[in-house]
Design a protein that fits this description.
By secondary structure, the chain is mostly helical. It is built from one helix and no strands. This is Motility protein.
């Protein structure tokens, strides 16, 4: 393999690494946003006090 081909392969590998990193960052942002939305939905539930007390009388 000559130097030009090796350089081109290295450049392509670097580009793929940058693309993969960008895609992962976008996914992380989406997952974080979904988590925040789920938290908001849970805070606005119909019975917000559900599960906060336990009846232990027998």
């Amino acid at each position: 393999m000559d130097i030009a081909a090796l350089s081109m392969a290295n450049s392509q590998a670097n580009l793929m690494t940058q693309v993969n990193t960008a895609v992962l960052a976008m996914n992380l942002s989406s997952i974080k946003e979904m988590g925040e939305n789920i938290t908001k939905l849970m805070e606005q539930s119909v019975t917000p006090n559900l599960g906060q007390t336990i009846d232990v009388t027998c």
